[in-house]
């Protein structure tokens, strides 16, 4: 049967909206440079299901029109396998992280007990002072400030532990490696003291920030 050419705009219309700009940019680059078009994209089927395709070929420009010549492969099964493998790796990483933190439970408890004990002690002293006929309000205020400081300290410990326990996608952000190492060493400080391990940290000065995932890097250091 006769085959009618399909306008590039018609091809672009069936591409998933989230992939359309990337597909169009890849076609523009291939047309301007004469390089091969190699792009993966999604298509929403009439029944609402999404399938993955890979386009391989060349793009030629004739005036304002572009012509695609090549093949389109359905790669939905491969993409599904890749996503499943990524989920399995994420689950394994999460289990490893939880297992490591379980081994550090004594150290974690010690870190929380310190600020909690300080909060309790300060609260008891403040209660006694307030019960006196002429309490030293400046001293009471100082005690309240200490309670707030220790509360923030406990909250920070919990925040770090929550981040380590949490299962999620990799999140890259600028990190201070010296700060990261110091935080991780603080997390295991009690454990190291119990095991009579002395750690000497030699941290370089004026390090530039690096892009990384804080939780994964901390997990790596904990494993070491």
Describe the protein in words.
The chain has 224 residues and is α+β, with helices and mostly antiparallel strands. The chain has helices spanning 8-14, 17-33, 76-103, 105-130, 137-165, 177-187, 189-194, 214-223; strands at residues 37-44, 50-62, 65-74, 173-175, 210-212. The strands form 2 sheets. Strands 1-2-3 form a 3-stranded antiparallel sheet. The protein has a two-stranded antiparallel sheet with strand order 4-5. It is elongated and about 90 Å long. The mean pLDDT is 79.
H-E order: HHEEEHHHEHHEH
Total DSSP helices: 8
Query: Mean pLDDT, rounded to whole units?
Result: 79
Q: Judging from the principal axes of the Cα atoms, what is the shape? A: elongated
Strands, count: 5
The description of the largest β-sheet is:
3 strands, antiparallel
- Low-confidence spans: none
C-alpha end-to-end distance:
66 Å
Strand order of the largest sheet: 1-2-3
Radius of gyration, whole Å: 29 Å
Give me the secondary-structure category: alpha+beta
Binned, the helix content reads 55-70%
Beta-strand proportion:
15-25%
């Amino acid at each position: 049967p006769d085959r009618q050419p399909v306008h590039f705009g018609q091809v672009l219309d069936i591409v998933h909206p989230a992939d359309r700009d990337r597909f169009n940019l890849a076609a523009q680059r291939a047309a301007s440079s004469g390089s091969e078009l190699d792009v993966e994209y999604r298509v929403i089927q009439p029944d609402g299901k999404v399938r993955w395709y890979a386009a391989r070929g060349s793009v030629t420009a004739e005036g304002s029109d572009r012509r695609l010549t090549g093949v389109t492969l359905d790669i939905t099964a491969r993409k599904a396998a890749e996503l499943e493998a990524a989920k399995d790796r994420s689950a394994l990483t999460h289990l490893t992280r939880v297992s490591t933190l379980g081994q550090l439970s004594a150290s974690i408890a010690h870190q929380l007990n310190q600020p909690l004990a300080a909060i309790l002690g300060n609260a008891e002293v403040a209660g006694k002072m307030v019960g006196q006929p002429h309490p030293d309000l400046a001293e009471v205020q100082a005690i309240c400030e200490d309670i707030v400081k220790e509360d923030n300290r406990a909250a920070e410990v919990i925040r770090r532990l929550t981040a380590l326990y949490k299962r999620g996608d990799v999140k890259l952000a600028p990190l201070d490696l010296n700060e990261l190492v110091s935080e991780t060493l603080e997390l295991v400080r009690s454990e190291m003291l119990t095991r009579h391990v002395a750690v000497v940290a030699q941290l370089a000065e004026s390090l530039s920030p690096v892009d990384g995932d804080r939780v994964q890097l901390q997990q790596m250091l904990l494993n070491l």
